[in-house]
Amino acid sequence: MSFIHRKKLTVFDAVNYTLLTIISAMCLFPFLYVLSVSLTHRSVYVPYALQLIPAKWSLGAYSYILSSNSFENALQSTIFITAAGTLLNIVFTFTMAYGLTERRLPHRRWIYGLVVFSLVFSAGIIPSFMLVKQLGLMNSYWALILPSLTNAWSLIVVKSFMDSLPTEVIESAKIDGCTDLGVFFKIIIPLSKPALAAFVLFFAVSHWNTYFNALLYLTDSKKWTLQVLVKSLVLDNSAKTAGMEASLGDASPPSETVRSASIILSILPILVVYPFLQKHFAKGVMIGSVKG
């Protein structure tokens, strides 16, 4: 006879669940409000009215934004920066981390010490701006990619993960005549899928949300990223500055619905991609924490 043991709900659990529910609702409420405003029909829209379910649904704001040249240019710029930046980030981070795990690498400790030093001390905005300017990268997408090919935190975490991989497999492959590149592509990379998935998500979100560097280095409005375009629409309240007129006759949607729709469109790709990487991401967040 089997018995089902149920854990009693303590006072701490009840308070904990209640607080987590309230915090989750507080985080979810602004997103639902913006989504509701973006889907509200212009005929029933009331400025700054609090409603989570539109009285009348409409995709007019999304059609208006997607038909504009400024949004198309910003979307293309952001996709290129995210794709190229993420790919290069993964290549440079994992290859350098693999090199730092090799004891045969000359001056390995000194190189690793420089990595840790850069984690503690940063050059700052002015030296970075001067470097980008001297390299002739101003008003170029590469100004947002090349200066951040990797970072100290990512290198340290990926190196710790590679150190935790079974050395017996790597040594056996080398005894069988496998080269360093063969070990990296045939053993290290397949065993590093959780780390790859986690850091692909980290790097992709970072590049997709690029705002300050894009505002600093991209002077041509046709090369703006989505975040800069959304900032111009939401904070500056200027559709004309963003290259998008807020009023094109009576058929145009209200400017508030346009701004809300632009916010939803800017975060939608990450929301779509995340569920497919969630399985590996849950494992990847623990990389380097346990060695065995």
Provide an overview of this structure.
The protein is mainly alpha-helical and 292 residues long. It has one domain (59-292): MetI-like (MetI-like fold), CATH 1.10.3720.10. Helices cover 63% and strands 0% of the residues. It contains twelve helices and no strands. 26% of the residues are buried. Mean pLDDT is 81; it is low at 246-250.
Question: Mind sketching the topology for me?
Answer:
Layout: H1 11-38, H2 60-66, H3 69-101, H4 108-120, H5 125-134, H6 152-163, H7 167-175, H8 180-191, H9 193-208, H10 212-217, H11 226-234, H12 255-284
Helix pairs in contact: 1-12, 2-12, 3-6, 3-9, 3-11, 4-6, 7-8, 9-12, 11-12
Please report the distance between the alpha carbons of the first and last residues.
39 Å
- Rg over CA atoms, rounded to whole Å, is 24 Å
Residue fraction in strands: under 5%
Q: What summary fits the major beta sheet?
A: none
User: What fold name goes in the CATH topology slot?
Assistant: MetI-like fold
Number of helical segments? 12
The CATH superfamily name is MetI-like
Order of helix and strand elements from N to C terminus: HHHHHHHHHHHH
Shape: globular
Question: At CATH's second level, what is the architecture?
Answer: Orthogonal Bundle
Structural class: mainly alpha
How many structural domains does the protein architecture include? Answer: 1
Rounded average pLDDT: 81
How many E-type strands?
0
Unreliable parts:
246-250
CATH class: Mainly Alpha
Roughly how much helix do the residues carry, as a percent range?
55-70%
